[in-house]
What does this fold into?
Amino acid sequence: MATAAEDVLAFLTRALGSPVGPDDDYFADGRANSLFALELVTYVEHRFGLTVEAEDLDIGNFRTGANILAFVGARTNGRISDGTAADATHG
It folds into this structure.
């Protein structure tokens, strides 16, 4: 079973068409746009079983794989749906 970090990075790599590391800012480097942002929010909601509220729609929450996992960890009291710690992208 893949970890949450592996799932997030695999999704980003598939969706953006090039390898994505946990700290890669795909918005800053031009690989992502506003349409991708919508797809990303939908992915996060489905993968982690949560609702992204309007106040959560800060680009900083979704700018990198590590930021996504930190956001999800904050919304789930530090635990991600597969039981890994929220900072799993670095370890």
